[in-house]
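Morning run. Coffee first, then this:
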Amino acid sequence: MKERQAVFILNPSSGKERAEDIREAAEEAIVRAGYEVTTRLTEKGGDAERFAREAAVRGAALVAVAGGDGTVNEAVNGLAGLPQRPLFTFFPLGTVNDFARALRIPLDPAEAIGAFPEFVPHPTDIGRAAGRYFMNIIAIGSLAEGVAAVPVEQKSAFGTLAYIVHGARALFSAEGNEITLVHDHGKWTGNASLLLIALTNSTGGFERMNPGAETDDGLLHVTVIKSTALPNLVRMSAALLLGKLQEEGAVETFRTRSLTVSSSRSLVCNIDGDECGVTPLEVSVLPGHLSILAPAEKEDR
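And here it is:
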């Protein structure tokens, strides 16, 4: 790889139109870290993936992204399938920023940019499903449909709250679906309202969803919500906030390196916030697949 060449991919539409405001600061921070930087602006879906892949093929030492989870996911997909992958980092401009939370990258983009010269490499797990790569979570069932229904204007205006409201509406009306999960340790079959397959501890902004999850543990953290009756939902919500969701009787959790999901009817799969295929689905984890620049210490915020 060409030493110290960096490509900075900026999504101008992310972060309530804040992206352009931070362009100069980001470029300066990358230069201060010892790189020569070229900036590319996305205009449409797929641009970040293409820009990241082109940067890697041309020998860039670093690909940096400023955007939301969708833009970061695109860039990850541009890099993850290549035999030689440059360092990667990102400055969060999105609504939820789960991946940034998991890596302890500051959620304020100006703070993240200011801290970037001190970031260090972290070998980070990447997942693969439906012919795509993902860095955070797959949701199957009611919540996947609820998130897909969130209008763009509500995402911008209300942020995480928009996801919670639409997800709650879907869960309250859910009847559940018969699903079968084949994993490293056996098979689970039952009626479920929601299936979550996570790589990190943060889901929808809740950083205690999978309290034991690490970004480099080589595992998929699977949560099955089996019941959505109102009393159960209220109790599970409290348990989630306390980081004790796994203790709920209506919740099944396990860890695995690979997973096959099948269901009695085709269910929408929401992968890193975007609809991507339906069941049946095969999921696997690629341990330490990307080297991501992030803060050296995982301190509690």
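The chain is about 30% helix and 35% strand. Good start to the day.
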